[in-house]
Design goal:
- The protein has helices spanning 4-16, 21-31, 38-50, 69-73, 79-84, 111-129, 133-154, 161-177; strands at 54-57, 64-67.
- A hairpin with a 6-residue loop joins β1 and β2.
- It is mainly alpha-helical.
- The chain is 60% helix and 4% strand.
- The protein is elongated, with a radius of gyration of 24 Å.
- Strands 1-2 form a two-stranded antiparallel sheet.
- It has eight helices and two strands, in the order αααββααααα.
- It folds into two domains: 4-73, Orthogonal Bundle (Arc Repressor Mutant, subunit A); 109-177, no CATH class.
- The termini are far apart.
Length: 178
């Protein structure tokens, strides 16, 4: 979505937390000595502001740029590296869920993505409506088993898919016996 220069600018703003345009220019001139005009940097910053990833405060020479709250929410995470670490070595951003994120979770999808998601949702609803109750029940059972197995595997459980199926079906059958 962004070119390398724009990604570097965003990364720099996030790392410094508050920078001037001149500081961004100096930083970028090291990575791109041949292409770093003031106008290009300003266009890149304007794009990042328009996309809600960078915020601007102040005016004229007092203008500074800092990461927006949306930018922090959309930070990438190397999932493999995270789970390769021992649980006690992982760095948490917070000890509890941050409920303050809800107002910032807007504009995450483009209009094209929304249209595609709506089409997929409609396709799902049509498929579900055409299923008999028995087939629907079997599909929900299959999804429950696969979801349980995969989430348990992520947590380090060593059960096979068939073991998980047995556990769920035996628990469901045992629950009906009571």
């Amino acid at each position: 979505m962004y070119n390398r220069r724009q990604e570097l600018i965003l990364g720099y703003v996030k790392a410094q937390e508050k920078v001037s345009r001149k500081e961004v220019e100096t930083y970028i001139s090291r990575a791109f000595p041949e292409k770093n005009s003031r106008i290009t940097i300003l266009r890149d910053l304007e794009l990042l502001i328009a996309d809600g990833l960078v915020a601007r405060t102040g005016k004229a020479r007092g203008t500074t740029y800092h990461p927006s709250s949306r930018s922090v929410l959309l930070d990438t995470l190397d999932v493999n590296a995270y789970f390769d670490q021992d649980q006690d070595q992982r760095i948490l951003r917070s000890e509890s869920f941050n409920f303050d994120i809800w107002p910032h979770l807007t504009g995450l999808l483009t209009e094209a993505e929304k249209v595609e998601l709506d089409a997929l949702n409609q396709q799902y609803r049509e498929g579900r409506a055409s299923m008999t109750p028995t087939v629907l029940q079997k599909e929900l059972e299959r999804l429950t088993i696969e979801f349980s197995w995969k989430s348990s595997k992520i947590e380090g459980n060593t059960y096979a898919l068939l073991d998980t199926e047995q556990l769920i079906k035996n628990h469901a059958y045992g629950a009906h016996q009571n």
